[in-house]
């Protein structure tokens, strides 16, 4: 068997000592395209943030040989401050940090690459616009352009299509498809199960506990979705922290 690019080994992540992700085991294959699905509060975003390194496991670990610069991350829109006075092109150029460094000089080639990325997401000519003037869909296109410039091997997307229009969603799904075609590993938190079924060949279904992980058609069954709903209804926020797994 091929060794996974990224392995979750008995992963438990907690908030206030209560498990948000509970003893998850499995691996993401290199070049895989995986949706992370499940009920609200089921640990989807927590899982992504743990993979990114923003949250430390309470138990278990996340194994990979990737450098930080090889992982691209798009957080939820609510976590991003759009009032910061920065232009579209400068936002996209933030994706160049792995080659220029934090204080490196941005050259003509970097700016051309950023302009090409904007054109690829349908924002040709938006270079000088302040990000605060953009619609939600336009701003999400800018963030995808930044990921294009970053050129990461693993791309983590946390609810990338929330509150954006259908045309933008369709265009950005096309970008994700191109990443997949280039052999990049893409992991995306999604709520729309029809969207998952149409565009994501692999699914990780979680309701704090792992319900299923594999081919989307075998994971998103009525039985698994019913189990996820049942677990979400039985959650006890005051329950004691889980005991270590055997």
β-strand amount: 15-25%
CATH topology name of the domain at 1-66 and 153-162 and 183-246: Rossmann fold
Mean pLDDT: 90
**Looking across the biggest beta sheet, what order are the strands in?**
5-6-7-3-8-9
Shape call: globular
The count of DSSP E runs of length 2 or more, i.e. the number of strands, is 9
**Total DSSP helices:** 9
Report how far the terminal alpha carbons are from each other: 25 Å
Write the H/E string, N to C.
Answer: EEEHEEHHHHEHEHEEHH
Low-confidence stretches: none
What is the class of the domain at 1-66 and 153-162 and 183-246 in the CATH system?
Alpha Beta
Could you estimate the helical fraction of the residues in percent?
25-40%
Radius of gyration: 19 Å
Category from helices, strands and their pairing: alpha/beta
Question: Main sheet?
Answer: 6 strands, mixed
CATH superfamily heading of the domain at 1-66 and 153-162 and 183-246: P-loop containing nucleotide triphosphate hydrolases
Q: What CATH architecture of the domain at 1-66 and 153-162 and 183-246 do you see?
A: 3-Layer(aba) Sandwich
